[in-house]
Write the structure tokens for this entry.
Amino acid sequence: AALVEEISTGSSKCVKITGIQKPGNTVSILVRGSNNLVLDEAERSLHDALCVIRCLVKKGALIAGGGAPETEVALRLSQSCHSLSGIDQYCMRAYAEALEAIPLTLAENAGLKAVETVTELRNLHAKGEVNYGINVRK
């Protein structure tokens, strides 16, 4: 290593190593937070992100997010339930409505106008935009 130094990060210190001649394929992530709950949530988020990358590299497949799969399945079930009757039709429609709660909750948690956002999402899926999901960074 070209340089090993102790640096201050707020009220704590850490060791920083730079200038490694043959760096490997590893990285260190330093996470700081105001309390253990924040740190635990950051750890879960990093773990989830790493699992997504691992699956993408291993399987080479990626599914749309933002409530897109749930919206598409709910739409297809809502269309298919009309071919049934009785309790089967009721159950299929109830399951479709339950799936629609996922994009609705996502929109609410993102601070978006939930009903308007989910209605727009449903309309896009009805027009064939099957991979369209909610963009929470609007």
